What we know:
The structure is a homotrimer.
Chain A: H1 6-29, H2 34-56, H3 62-65, H4 67-82, H5 84-89, H6 91-115, H7 120-141, H8 147-150, H9 155-170, H10 175-196
Helix pairs in contact in A: 1-2, 1-4, 1-6, 2-4, 2-7, 6-7, 6-9, 6-10, 7-9, 9-10
Organism (chains A, B, C): Azospirillum rugosum
Protein name (chains A, B, C): Membrane protein YeiH
Family (chains A, B, C): Belongs to the UPF0126 family.
Amino acid sequence: MTDISPLLLAMDLTGVFIFGLTGGTVAVRRQLDIFGVIVLSIVTALAGGLLRDLMIGAVPPASLRDDRYLIAALLSGLVAFFFHPQINRLVKPVMVLDAAGLGLFAVAGCGKALTYGLTPVPAVLLGVLTACGGGVVRDVLVAEVPRVLREEIYAMAALLAAVIVIAGAELGLPRTPVAIAAALAGFLLRVVSVWRGWSAPRAPGS
Amino acid sequence: MTDISPLLLAMDLTGVFIFGLTGGTVAVRRQLDIFGVIVLSIVTALAGGLLRDLMIGAVPPASLRDDRYLIAALLSGLVAFFFHPQINRLVKPVMVLDAAGLGLFAVAGCGKALTYGLTPVPAVLLGVLTACGGGVVRDVLVAEVPRVLREEIYAMAALLAAVIVIAGAELGLPRTPVAIAAALAGFLLRVVSVWRGWSAPRAPGS
Amino acid sequence: MTDISPLLLAMDLTGVFIFGLTGGTVAVRRQLDIFGVIVLSIVTALAGGLLRDLMIGAVPPASLRDDRYLIAALLSGLVAFFFHPQINRLVKPVMVLDAAGLGLFAVAGCGKALTYGLTPVPAVLLGVLTACGGGVVRDVLVAEVPRVLREEIYAMAALLAAVIVIAGAELGLPRTPVAIAAALAGFLLRVVSVWRGWSAPRAPGS
C-alpha cells in the first residue's frame, strides 16, 4: 500500500464533496427521494476515484479504506437534499464548484497514478478519468448523455491539469506548488470556457 | 485466496439465480431475442458480485473461478425465456423473489467484505453494492433510470441487512443465524414497504 | 506480469483501432465536438480490454502499460472525426470492420484469460466481454440500448470465436493457426448473419 500525500488527500476529499453535491443536485431535480439523492451523491463523488484505484491496483480503493471519503460523500448528499433550493438559485456557483472539483480530481488522480509507478501518458488518462468518471456515471444513471461528451471544454480542462502535473514531475519541480497550479489551470480553463462560450469544432458535414 | 463459507456460497448462488430471472424478464419484455435475454440475465446476476470482488481484490472474481455461478445465471436466462408468460402473470412473486435476492446478496456481499478485512462502513457499502449493482447495470443497459434510484425502500432494505451483519459481527454473535436474520430483515423491509406503499421524503420544493 | 504473445498484441491493437473507429463514428453522428469524438473513441476501443484485465488481475491493464493502445485509440478518433463522410458512405465496410474487431477481441480476450490461468468457461465469458464490452459502453454513453442486446448474432459470433480458441487449447493444437481460424470464424458468422438477415428467436408471446 502506497500512501498518498496529505495534499492529495485534501484535494481528493474536497473534490468528493463537490462532486457529491453535483450528483445530489441532479437527483433532486429528477425528483428522486432522499435515498436516491444519497445514492447518486455517493456514486458521483466516488466513482472516478474508484475506477482509478481499480486500474492502478490500489485495492481496496482509498474510498473504501478511509471512512472520510464515504462521510464526505454522504454529507454532500444531505446538503444537496436540504439546501437544494439555495443551491439551485446558484447556477453559477455550482458550475464554478464543479470546475474546482474537476481540477482537483484531475491533479489527485494523475498524481496518484504517478505514485503507483504509471508512465506519463496513462497517468494523464487516469487523471482525466478520475475527474470525469463520477460525472459520467451520474449522467448515465439518470439516462442522459454524459456532460463530458456534450460540453465543449470539460475533459479538455482535466487534461490540461493532468498534463501540468506531468510536466512538473518531468522537470523535477516541487510537487505542492505544481499541484496547486495545475488544479488552478484546469479550473480556470473550464470556468473561462463556460463564461466566454468557447466551443470546439464539430466534424465537417456532421 | 480466501474462501467464503458454504452458507455465503449458497446465498450467493440463490441470489444469482433470482437476479438473473429479473434480468431475463426485463429482457423478454423489451422483446430482445434469446441471446439478448441470456446476456442480460448473466449481467444482472453477476454484476453486483463482480463489482464487489474487484473492489476487495478478490481477483479473479468468484463468478469467474467457480462455474456454478455462470451456470446458475445461464439457467435463469433460459427459464426467463421459456417461462416468461407464467413469470409475468406472477408480478407479486417476482417482486418477492427480487426482495429475497436483495437480502441474500446484501448479506453475502457484506460478509465477504468483512472476510477480506474491510472495516464496517465500507463493508456495508459493498453489501449494498452487491445487492443493487446487478439491477443498476440491468436498468442502464435497457436505458432506464435504475430502480434503486426510483423505488422508495430498495437500497434501504439492503442497507438494513448489511448493518445487521455488521452489528452481529461486532457483538461476536454466531455468523449463520445472524446471516439468516439479516437476509430476512432486508427481505421483509422491502416486501412490506412495497405492500404498504411506503415512500421516502422528497426534497422540499423539488 | 504475464506478457501476451506478439500475435495477441497485434490482434488487440488492430481491434482497438477498429472499435475506436466505430465509437468515433457514432460520436460524429451524434454531433459531438472533437473532444467528445475522441473520448468516445478511446472508451469504445479500450473498455472491453480494460474490463477483462481488471477481472483477471492484470493490473494496471495492458492499455495503461503500453502507450500503443492509447495511441491507436486516439488515432481512430481523429480518423473518425476527419474522414467521417467517407466512413459513413461505407456502411457495409464499417460493419465488416466491426465484425473483424469482434472476432479479434474475442480471440485475444479468451487467449489472455487462459494465459492468466482461468478455466475454459470463464475464459469464454471474458472473450465475449472483451469483444462486446467496448460497444456496450459506447452505446450506454449515448443513451442507447447496446447493440449486443438488440442485434441477432453479435455476442453469438464472439462466443463462437472464443469457443474455438478453447477447443484448440484443449486439443493441444498450435496456437497461432487456431487463433486465426477462431477470429475468422467469429468474423464470418457475424458478417454472414447480417448479410442473410439471420435472426434469433424471441420469447413465445413476448
